[in-house]
Amino acid sequence: MSTLHSFDDDARAEMLCYLVVAELVALARTGEWLRTDHVVESCRIWMKANGVTCDWQDRVALAGAAARLAPDVLEAVKLTTERSLATLFSDGWMLDYGSPTVCEIHRVCSNFLTQRGCT
To answer: What is the pTM of this model?
Structure first.
């Protein structure tokens, strides 16, 4: 995906996708889902990398959605090791949208937001 500048529907779906993958990485690394401070940091990393700002209510809503979606995504994609999850990234901590798995996670996130009227 390209660099974003406004926090629109596409940006929400991308940020949610990023947070879901961050949840999966945390589980693979520590055996536990993301702690609150790591969720905050993940949001900051994504916003800075994409040139986007959003208010804290949006970040809290997306973080909660990521926590709800991550177990289902984990079941679907079966990526449970750091090594397997590393294939989802292209440049540092940027997701590789050329990866079919990333595209599928993004689709799940986009559908989730659409169904809940968040977009």
So the answer is: 0.91
